[in-house]
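[SOLVED] Need 3D model of a two-part complex

Original post:
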Amino acid sequence: MDVSVILFEGFTSLDFIGPVEALQRIPEYSIRYFSPEGGAVSNGKGLNLATEPMADIRPGILLVPGGFGTRKLVNDGAFISALRKAAEESAYCLTVCTGSALLAKTGLLDGLAATSNKRAFDWVVSVNPRVRWQRRARWAKNGKYYSSSGVSAGIDMALGFISDRFGEAKAREAAGAMEYVWNSDPGKDPFAAD
Amino acid sequence: MDVSVILFEGFTSLDFIGPVEALQRIPEYSIRYFSPEGGAVSNGKGLNLATEPMADIRPGILLVPGGFGTRKLVNDGAFISALRKAAEESAYCLTVCTGSALLAKTGLLDGLAATSNKRAFDWVVSVNPRVRWQRRARWAKNGKYYSSSGVSAGIDMALGFISDRFGEAKAREAAGAMEYVWNSDPGKDPFAAD
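Solution:
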């Protein structure tokens, strides 16, 4: 099964590299990188990655990171339509940080619980207030949709996703191989305001 | 000041993306990516990055990740020579995971304390037993040389490096912006054998 990472100019690299580091330890998952038109995309801070065009995404697991590029991208109708199609066809759709703003804009999260980056939360809510936004959540899930709070929380969510699919022992094994101290309780959020 | 990341075929992406996510929050640091000859390099799992040739590295901070590619690279005399030159000229040299095996091979760590990935430790020791290898350490430092244990430990080391240079408040601020639960004690290693 493909794990298709959706990239764009101005992505946050740890948002997806963290989850990918966990997910690629599942032998049946292979990781592919996409952007709207394919070709090189940049985080705006010196990192340039090769990608395939989004039209070539196969149904599987979608992984949508955040980053400052999302501020512009939520208003790109063609991108949001392509993302909606890919998310509808996916078996699972995972967002990290402000990636949830992109998915929220498609309407597919309406009425569902989701979360996002603490420092962009009010903006994310403004993108689509019909989502049941959770300010206190390391990650949130609703059926096939998973979303995590900021940056590093994506690693915890990815391990939670592995736990849900393959059992907790598999998630612990992946965390151990990464020497990562897993914050395994999705409701325990050390960065939420009191 | 440049943060120069040394890449090669078969790198582990989280080894450097984690530290970079922390280091790029220091306004005076700019991140550049290098490989022996420059051009595209791959982690062997679908991720392809653009790099500059190592000959163009300017003195500053060197960041050396690990990955399965290190097994071959420790025996590449031209690479090890180029790494030695870059490390000697650097103000600071940080390694993550089996990146410490590469630096150990240059001889620059002889007699110094260093650490590495738990699951490759015996191999790393065999590369150069004259290093004072620490099996229990989230990270270790000796003057300008820092090394971390496996993968995610690099984030903790990078925050420790920021704390050493700019104070703990700055490191806490970076960790908060990343929503990362910092394992701030270099001697507390949850993955070390009892």
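Edit: The interface with chain B takes residues 12-14, 17-18, 20-21, 24, 30-33, 40, 45-50, 117-119, 149-153, 155, 176-181, 183, 190-191 of chain A (CB under 8 Å).
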